[in-house]
Amino acid sequence: MASSSHTGRPNKLFRNLNAKIASIPMVLTAMVIFLGGTVWTVVYSFTNSRLLPRANFIGFEQYERLWDAPRWIISIQNLAIYGILSLIFSIVIGFVLAALMDQKIRFENAFRTIFLYPFALSFIVTGLVWQWILNPDFGVQSIVRSLGWETFSFNPLYNSDIVIYGILIAGLWQGTGLVMCLLLAGLRGIDEDIWKASRVDGIPMWRTYLFIIIPMMRPVFITTLVIITSGIVRLYDLVVAQTSGGPGIASEVPAKYVYDYMFQAQNLGQGFAASTMMLLTVAIVIIPWAYLEFGGKKRG
């Protein structure tokens, strides 16, 4: 028995050897470039680097300046508002659309393509399109006023109090289709016998979705949340295309703060500190997801 167990270990080690050898370049790239770049960024966030990186360490001074900057605080507030509302609305709207699609409606492929098409566009294109749509001179406000409602006002991109909601509209328009497709794939994986049993028992459809289907789709929802959240943290293109951070700094977001300080203000240390905070945010999202996805399976 002991000899068979010892002979089994080399077999496991050399199983799929070609695939393991082929993955070496990718692993080395991830270790050297991504992990190395991450460590380099974190280390130099504790320096007073300006135009070029300098190993002149100043402790947490860059982080103190960061959290004392009104622009950074506003960017965090905007990201929180955008992120919470984007998560809620994209999941709710995406699930409703997926549930409707799951009813085997006619022209399903056409509708699915229409809903998913915005995701194929770049964020810059989406931002410019919605900048035109929300422009008060020739967008929604102008069209409604031409129909007779002269006092109608809808110009979120020019109002500092609600500008982040104008950006949210564009973000939802682009990303909801992907959420719908992910959740639709999850719904199609549900056994048809569950639906038959719920109909036999007389359970209303909404209760079946709420108490049976949605709990069964937990892995799909977790994966979808991670994808949405990673996109929220990286929010940059939409803001630049629609408002460039304006009016004033009303629509600033962390990614734009990092870019401006690293490439325009020539303050690498401050940019590194801000990007490290963004990295920490991503880690807070990814680590629980990895634990739920893989830790639970190992325990099982």
From TrEMBL:
Q: Which residues cross the membrane?
A: 21-43, 79-101, 113-133, 162-187, 208-233, 272-292
Q: Name one GO cellular component term.
A: plasma membrane
Lineage, opening ranks: Bacteria, Pseudomonadati, Pseudomonadota, Alphaproteobacteria, Hyphomicrobiales
The family classification in the record reads: Belongs to the binding-protein-dependent transport system permease family.
Provide the ABC transmembrane type-1 domain boundaries: 76-291
Tell me the Pfam families matching this sequence.
BPD_transp_1 (PF00528)
Classification via SUPFAM superfamilies: MetI-like (SSF161098)
Q: What is this protein called?
A: Sugar ABC transporter permease
Membrane topology type = Multi-pass membrane protein
Q: Specify the species.
A: Agrobacterium albertimagni AOL15
Q: Which InterPro entries match?
A: ABC_transporter_permease, MetI-like, MetI-like_sf
Under the heading PANTHER family, the entry gives: ABC TRANSPORTER PERMEASE PROTEIN
